[in-house]
Amino acid sequence: MTMPRYRHEELADEIQAEVRSGSLPVGAALPAERRMTEIYGVSIGTVRRAVALLRERGVVATLPAKGTFVIGAGEAAAEE
Questions:
Q1: What letter does residue 26 receive in the DSSP assignment?
Q2: How many whole angstroms separate alpha carbon 71 and alpha carbon 24?
Q3: Quick one: which of 6, 18, 30, 33 has the fewest CB in 10 Å?
Q4: pLDDT at position 1
Q5: Over the stretch 23-52, which tens digit does the pLDDT of each residue have?
Q6: Three-state DSSP class for 30?
Q7: pTM of the predicted model, to two decimals?
Q8: Rg of the chain's alpha carbons, rounded to an integer?
Q9: Which long-range contacts (CB under 8 A, 24 or more apart) does 64-69 make?
C-alpha cells in the first residue's frame, strides 16, 4: 500500500525532476515564492516547505536577498 504524501513533498519531487531533466539547469534561479504559488497552484507555506526540502536534498541553495538557485540534482527522492 502506498502511503499518502504531503503536497510539499510532491512539489519538491516535481521541481527536482525538472532539475534532473535539464529544464531547470544548475545555476538557474527558481521563480520567486509568490510566482511559484501561481505556477504550481499551491500555498506559500507549501512552496517554503518544498524549497526547504530541496535544500536538505542538496538541490538548491538560498542566498538572502538574492534568491534560490539550483546547485545540483541532489539525492534521489524517497521511493516508496
A1: T
A2: 10
A3: 6
A4: 80
A5: 999 999 999 999 999 999 999 999 999 999
A6: coil
A7: 0.88
A8: 12
A9: 67/29, 67/30, 67/32, 68/29, 68/30, 69/27, 69/28, 69/29, 69/30
